[in-house]
Amino acid sequence: MCAAALYVLKVKNIVYGCQNDRFGGSTVLDVAAVLRPVTIMKGGYKGEEAMGLLKEFYKGTNPSAPPSKVKVKHN
């Protein structure tokens, strides 16, 4: 969805650090094949550093976040 919006806006270049196929970076529908964008995408820019920043960010907690719904396994 985000990529489609950028394609429609005719953004010329998109540069990103790390790709995460599970949480973004690819979709079931190949949006580029449908919209045939002029956008040039380049991934992996400072990929290791970008991944480190994401990992560090997710270590923190958000005091305003709702309680987790993740089920905890009890042995």
Description:
- With 75 residues, this protein is mainly α.
- The protein has 3 helices and 2 strands, in the order αβαβα.
- It has one domain (2-59).
- It has a two-stranded parallel sheet with strand order 1-2.
- Strand 1 (13-15), helix 2 and strand 2 form a beta-alpha-beta unit.
- The termini are far apart.
- The mean pLDDT is 79.
Low-confidence stretches: none
DSSP helix count?
3
Query: How much beta, percentage-wise?
Result: 5-15%
From the helix content, strand content and strand pairing, which structural class follows?
Answer: mainly alpha
State the total count of DSSP E strands. Answer: 2
Intertermini distance? 40 Å
Shape: elongated
Helix content: 25-40%
Rg value: 17 Å
Query: How many separate domains make up the residues?
Result: 1
SSE string, helix = H, strand = E?
Answer: HEHEH
List the strand order in the largest sheet.
1-2
**For the report, how would you describe the main beta sheet?**
2 strands, parallel
Mean pLDDT, all residues: 79
Task: Produce the secondary structure layout.
Elements: H1 2-8, E1 13-15, H2 31-35, E2 40-42, H3 47-59
Parallel strand pairs: 1-2
GO molecular function, one term: catalytic activity
InterPro entries: Cytidine_deaminase-like
